[in-house]
């Protein structure tokens, strides 16, 4: 999705809206925005056929750094990893601990780092919005989102007393029927088949979002526009087809346009907004799934946890020393520090 790419960069970095966003009075009722206000995720979601086709070009070919191994990985291990548990395997108390921590973050003051963020949760949405052009449609996508999700998990623990790990949503088991997951119920995150209307049930009912839509900032409601014909494409076949690709860059591009894009667009509205989709708390469960698929690909060979290939937004090759930044919300790390989730830097794994 190179469409409007340079415009997007200008909007995010050169535009005045992030700097000039003056505090506005919180609306008493979250205003609904028309669907046209939300930019569709990843202009080119790919089909299962595309995912299976080894010749389907999802990224430019480049050399794999076969011998650029991570020297610290042999020595550094984590002995007590956090376990990220799939939603259905999590107890109600485990689910509630996570949801309460997210709500806690939404109730805490913004740091002030992001002028458009109105609470601490929105600091993370604003971070994602600002870096969107850097970390989508290029090979940084998977590795950067791994660190974003980790940053979120770590902030929940540090600032809201959360002692658990991020839950994730096995969308391959609910492909085409997300509405049947208890995630999208009045007990938890609220409904999905809302036709673009505001979420009015569940623990995030009537949430107002101040970051987005797109690179702009207008108060709007947490809304969804569930479409089962789109979430049908988060099935295990498309995940496997992408994970059958041997280079990191090819797999990452396939994942981004595959289950990743279909999950975003299939939940719809806020979630289909490439810039500000973290405004919907299900973003984190979705990206847990995408990161877990990445880890499964990495489990095939040690080299997949110690080498990297692909390029960044401007075509520079990624190396183990390439910096991954969350703009100071957590320390900068090297790609080599976070390639292996079982390193001392991250130290987590998925329950399956
Ligand atoms: Cu993203």
Keywords:
globular; mainly alpha; signal; binds copper (II) ion; Di-copper_centre_dom_sf; 6 strands; Tyrosinase/Hemocyanin; metal-binding; 11 helices; oxidoreductase activity; di-copper center containing domain from catechol oxidase
Summary of the model, kept short:
The chain is mainly α and 352 residues long.
Task: Report on this structure.
With 352 residues, the chain is mainly α. The protein has a single domain (5-12, 40-60, 82-300), classed as Orthogonal Bundle (di-copper center containing domain from catechol oxidase), CATH 1.10.1280.10. The protein is 35% helix and 4% strand. It is built from eleven helices and six strands. Strands 1-6 form a two-stranded parallel ribbon. β4 and β5 (333-334) form a beta hairpin. α1 packs across α5 and α4 crosses α6. The longest helix is centred in the middle third of the chain and has 21 residues, at 140-160. The protein is globular, with a radius of gyration of 19 Å. The two termini are 32 Å apart. The structure holds copper (II) ion (CU). Copper (II) ion (CU) binds at residues 128, 136, 145.
Global Rg = 19 Å
CATH topology: di-copper center containing domain from catechol oxidase
Q: For the residues shown, what is the average pLDDT?
A: 88
Name of the top-level CATH class: Mainly Alpha
**Domains (count):** 1
Shape: globular
Instruction: State the helicity in percent bands.
Output: 25-40%
What is the N-to-C order of secondary-structure elements (H for helix, E for strand)?
A: HHHEHHHEEHHHHEEHE
Going across the major beta sheet, what is the strand order? 1-6
Ends apart, CA distance between termini: 32 Å
- Unreliably modeled segments: 1-27, 59-75
Number of strands: 6
Largest sheet: 2 strands, parallel
Bound molecules: copper (II) ion
- Global structural class: mainly alpha
Question: Any idea what the CATH architecture is?
Answer: Orthogonal Bundle
Please name the fourth-level CATH homologous superfamily: Di-copper center containing domain from catechol oxidase
Q: Tell me the number of helical segments per DSSP (H or I, 4 or more residues long).
A: 11
Pfam families: Tyrosinase (PF00264)
InterPro entries: Di-copper_centre_dom_sf, Tyrosinase/Hemocyanin, Tyrosinase_Cu-bd
Protein name: Di-copper centre-containing protein
GO molecular function, one term: oxidoreductase activity
């Amino acid at each position: 999705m190179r469409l409007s790419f340079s415009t997007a960069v200008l909007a995010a970095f050169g535009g005045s809206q992030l700097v000039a966003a003056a505090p506005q009075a919180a609306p008493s009722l979250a205003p609904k925005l028309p669907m046209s206000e939300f930019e569709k995720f990843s202009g080119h979601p790919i089909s299962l056929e595309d995912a299976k086709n080894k010749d389907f070009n999802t990224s430019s070919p480049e050399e794999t750094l076969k011998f650029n191994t991570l020297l610290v990985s042999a020595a550094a291990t984590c002995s007590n990893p956090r376990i990220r548990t799939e939603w259905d395997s999590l107890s109600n108390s485990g689910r509630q601990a996570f949801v309460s921590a997210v709500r806690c973050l939404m109730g805490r003051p913004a740091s002030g780092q992001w002028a458009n963020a109105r609470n601490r949760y929105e600091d993370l949405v604003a971070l994602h919005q600002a870096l969107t052009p850097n970390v989508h449609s290029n090979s940084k996508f998977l590795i950067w989102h791994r660190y974003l999700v980790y940053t979120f998990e770590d902030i929940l623990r540090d600032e809201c007393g959360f002692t658990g790990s991020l839950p994730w949503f096995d969308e391959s088991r609910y492909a085409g029927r997300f509405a049947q997951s208890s995630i999208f119920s009045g007990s938890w995150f609220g409904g999905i088949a809302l036709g673009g209307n505001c979420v009015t049930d569940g623990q995030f009912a009537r949430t107002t979002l101040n970051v987005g839509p797109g690179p702009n900032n207008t108060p709007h409601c947490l809304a969804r526009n569930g479409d089962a014909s789109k979430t049908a494409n988060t099935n295990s076949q498309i995940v496997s087809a992408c994970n059958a690709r041997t280079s990191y860059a090819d797999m990452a591009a396939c994942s981004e346009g595959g289950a990743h894009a279909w999950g975003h667009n299939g939940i719809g509205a806020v979630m289909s907004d490439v810039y500000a989709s973290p405004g919907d708390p299900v973003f984190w469960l979705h990206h847990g799934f995408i990161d877990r698929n990445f880890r499964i690909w990495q489990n095939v060979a040690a080299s997949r946890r110690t080498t990297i290939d692909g390029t960044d937004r401007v075509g520079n090759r990624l190396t183990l020393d390439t910096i991954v930044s969350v703009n100071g919300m957590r320390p900068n790390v090297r790609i080599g520090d976070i390639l292996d989730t079982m390193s001392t830097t991250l130290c987590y794994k998925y329950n399956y």
